[in-house]
Amino acid sequence: MAARPKIPFHWSFLLVAALIPLVELILPGEHHIGDLLRPIFIMALLGLGLNILTGFTGILNLGVAAFMAVGAYSYAILTCDIYPFRLGFWCATLVTVLVGLAVGFFLGLPTIRLRGDYLAIVTLAFGEIVEDVLKNLDSITKGTEGINPLPAPSVFGYQFRPETYQPWYYLFLGFLALVVLINRNLHRSRIGRAWISIREDELASSCMGINPMKAKLLAFALGAAQCSLAGALWASYLGSSGEPGNYDFQVSIIALCMVIVGGMGNIGGVLLGALVITGFNSIVLETLTDFLKAHQLISSSNVFTAPGNWKYMLYGLALILMMRFRPEGLLPSRQLKAELHHQEPPVPPAS
Amino acid sequence: MSILEISKLTVRFGGLTAVNSVSLDIPTNEIVSVIGPNGAGKTTLFNAVTGIHEPTSGTIRFDGRETRRPFRTSTALTLALVGLIAALSFILIVNIEPLWDATITSNYVYQQPFPWTKALSSAVGFFSGQTGGRLLLPFLIGGILGLAGALAIWFRNRYAPEVAARAGIARTFQNIRLFNQMSALDNVLLGMDSRLQTRFWHAALRLPLFWRERRDAEQRAMEILRFVRLDSEAHQLAENLAYGHQRRLEIARALAVQPRLLLLDEPAAGMNPAEARDLMNLIHEIRDRGITVLLIEHHMPVVMGISDRIAVLDHGEKIAEGTPAEVRSNVRVVEAYLGKDHEDAAAT
Amino acid sequence: MSGSQIFLQQLIIGLSNGMIIALIALGYTMVYGIIELINFAHGDLFMLGCFAGLTITGFLGLDQAEPGTSGTWFCLLLMLLLVPIFCGGLNWLVDRLAYRHLRESTKLAPLVSAIGVSFVFMNIGLLWGGVPMKVFGLGRAAAAPKAFPELVSNANLLGQSPVEFTGKDVMVLVVTLPLMLLLTWFVKRTREGKAMRAVAQDRLAAQLMGIPVDRVIGRTFLIGGALAGVASVVFAVYNNTIYFQMGYRAGIDAFTAAVLGGIGSLPGAVLGGVIIGLARAFCDQYLETRWTNVLVFAVLILVLVFRPSGLLGSRAKEKV
């Protein structure tokens, strides 16, 4: 095998992340960076779900937020005590993952044979449909109010509380580590090999006996399952299902940005992308907004001054610039880098 | 006994007839070459045999069977199941809100244990109270759409390359189509992948079956690489290999599919005489392993040197067929194609 | 209103909206036909055209206008001139800056770029809504929908009939029909149109014949964008409300229309647009408004499963 970096980025990321709360405990004073990192772990899960589809298999999915919404609402319905199910955290999460698998499978079934760009639009439309349906079935989903409150998880009898963030931190990090491990295992197996061959040359792949439809369907189902898991954890984190508008196109594009900016097909790249993009979204933007507000530089009547109003443009520009100058992402998988700076294969002399 | 029987095959793209009523029988364990000027339809013929193009008319039989998905009872059952699931989903979708109300909302008292059996009977009661419009109509619409859709998708994909590959037909490509960013070993392993039993949970959880199969597969892949004399480059990225080695890797990958019929599309293109001789030996060794070889080639020494039979295409039609000697002296062939290469061909 | 009158009313509404969708779909299908790219930003381009139209209206001081006065006709004509130029030019610029360098790249790269452009456009729309002009509510609530002044009268041309057929419906027909005929003539008869069709069929061959492929592609973006611009003026005047996220919905509708009619086929786009417009109108009336979007999605899936080449498209297979 060609030389690899000594420790893959994804493991170093997880290791450092595991140490942060401990470091915080040791340092004097109150620090809550860990608190702010929790959404990043969940969004990283979303990104990893998208990565299976787009990064490994090359299928552009513009509606992963819909899978996340399905996960969040399923979890909420299963755990909130306004409904009779009232499952515990682990049970509800497991069921939610299965629901995600099923949704991904059934969405994929009629659409998987479509060409890449058609499929992208279908996933886009699907994202909108799910949002619509969640809003419209308001006797079940409580429309724009969302389903709340949700009980906090309990692990081995210990009941989580909103005030102490550390157990949550390690719970989410644990899930992330598990998903990273599973994705890496899939990547380095015949499953991952089939996906990557489809991404690179679907025709040649099928001529070697790979059934692209089955492989893509699996990618769809597993990707959806992971995004649903992200949704379940998100709902647990919020203590609410959130409202349908929270799972809109913007979230899908943030996930896409994570994968594109971080590095398509590279698990560590997606983690980096999650850190950069979500970190920017949640931490940098908020801090900047607070700062400007404190110095009275933001006026509510001037739309141009609020940093939040420039978000879309930044994400859009990020995508455009990355595609133009560094399509393989910040941390490319060695496979993708060469693929995107593709050289024509040696041409035989005229025959 | 013919392993491949092509009978009056016609392949038309819109207004262009690429292959016109070509019939060809490939005897088992022979080396047959298909030659002809550029644009004669040779690659299209290959594409039809390997399931890339659906024949406009005519048949292709491999081992007596057509290379397309057979419609079996299991297929019919699966399609019916899809229709049923669609039908039931439609009923559920149409009735979801009132059903939820009748079953869950009306039976649930906040934080009290939920009477599941009562809810079940509420559900049954709800459905029996429904008129045809909310019960039978969605069932029929869903069922018909589901069944028809599944049928449409199935029929449209009857001819697919993976069907031919699993039946035992493998190929290489005119313009090398390796997986450039995978190693040589991975390319060959890909050829084997379709026959492995490891499922995604075995891989994800690294169960024993995964490790066992991987070890066996890597062993067999290395054997194949040794056979084509590329074992020293097993871990090189495919795109970093020399041109001639890439051609051999493509053959190795095709061999990994465990074919009984191997289609080689211009394998000698761009090779010097020494490489061409090595290739001829390799093809002989492949044939000695019991694999029938069908070859498209322009390199006349190779064609004349290894073929048991030659078929000549021109403008989509077969204009001659026979042993190398017969074809070489066929007037039509000489006119259409061998004209300027006549000296080279006669010299071998 | 009697049953047949309700039906007729929905027919009118459906046709008018359908023609608008058709115009947007035409832009989609032209660009797809020539470079096989779904321009995700097309719907948002349409949205920007609406904002541009509103700006023009504001500059002319017509935010409280009475329909039918001379100022409104002038405004309408000015918009129909300037907005297509704006949209066409913007579309051309985007191709030049974002897509041209990705012609030889993988299929994924231009798609992702287009999504990026879509997002940039959407943000521009958001910020535009905050411009301190009266028509934009003095920039107070940038994200809120903006009312578009009544430039064409709402008076029912059918007098006392419960079925409403207004000057707005006439405007839609008067603008869209000749434009479509003009487009058909252009594509079929002129040299430029033939060049476009050549590039769409076989880019390499067209290049070898001396056709300046990049320029032809650029002009296709220009024309497609201009069509979206016309659609935005017509839409804004017809529906009297615009908001910065409208491009998303319009884009999906128009894409469904283009696919339904057969992507790459101009008459197909028109047919598809009319069908989708009618489907929306009838669904709003006879089923429930909240399921209309689901219906359009269902139409998309059904077309892609049963007849992916669309109603008027040709079944072209990929040559290996």
Q: Care to describe what's here?
A:
The complex is a heterotrimer of chains A (351), B (348) and C (320). With 351 residues, chain A is mainly alpha-helical. Chain A has one domain: ABC transporter involved in vitamin B12 uptake, BtuC, CATH 1.10.3470. Chain A has helices spanning 9-26, 33-56, 64-79, 89-111, 116-136, 138-141, 166-187, 190-207, 212-238, 249-262, 267-294, 311-325, 334-340, and strands at 154-155, 158-159. Mean pLDDT of chain A is 85; it is low at 343-351. Chain C has helices at residues 3-35, 42-59, 70-99, 108-128, 167-189, 191-201, 203-208, 213-239, 246-261, 266-286, 292-306; strands at residues 146-147, 241-242. Classes of the chains: A mainly alpha (351), B alpha/beta (348), C mainly alpha (320). At the A-B interface, helix 7, helix 8, helix 9 and helix 13 of A face helix 2, helix 4, helix 5, helix 6 and helix 7 of B.
Name the beta content range of chain A.
under 5%
Q: What's the gyration radius of chain C in Å? A: 20 Å
| Helix/strand order of chain A, N-terminal first | HHHHHHEEHHHHHHH
Rounded mean pLDDT score of chain C: 87
Count the strands of chain A?
Answer: 2
Largest interface: A-B, 51 and 70 residues
Find the count of extended strands of chain C (DSSP E, 2+ residues). Answer: 2
Structural class of the secondary elements of chain A?
mainly alpha
CATH class of chain A: Mainly Alpha
Report strand order across the widest sheet of chain C: 1-2
Q: Which stretches of chain A of 5+ consecutive residues score pLDDT under 50?
A: 343-351
Sheet with the most strands, sense and barrel status of chain A:
2 strands, antiparallel
**Order of strands, widest sheet of chain A:** 1-2
Which oligomeric form is depicted?
A: heterotrimer
**What CATH architecture of chain A do you see?**
Orthogonal Bundle
How many DSSP H or I helices of chain C? 11
Terminal residue distance of chain C: 59 Å
Question: What is the number of domains of chain A?
Answer: 1
Detail the topology: elements first, then pairings.
The complex is a heterotrimer of chains A (351), B (348) and C (320).
Chain A (H helix, E strand, L loop, with lengths): L8 H18 L6 H24 L7 H16 L9 H23 L4 H21 L1 H4 L12 E2 L2 E2 L6 H22 L2 H18 L4 H27 L10 H14 L4 H28 L16 H15 L8 H7 L11
Chain B lengths: L1 E12 L2 E12 L3 E5 L6 H8 L7 E6 L2 E2 L6 H33 L10 H13 L3 H25 L4 H7 L1 E3 L12 H10 L6 H5 L3 H20 L15 H14 L4 E5 L7 H16 L3 E5 L3 H7 L2 E6 L2 E6 L1 H5 L2 H8 L3 H6 L1
Parallel strand pairs in B: 3-8, 3-9, 6-7, 7-8
Antiparallel strand pairs in B: 1-2, 1-4, 4-5, 9-10
Chain C lengths: L2 H33 L6 H18 L10 H30 L8 H21 L17 E2 L19 H23 L1 H11 L1 H6 L4 H27 L1 E2 L3 H16 L4 H21 L5 H15 L14
Antiparallel strand pairs in C: 1-2
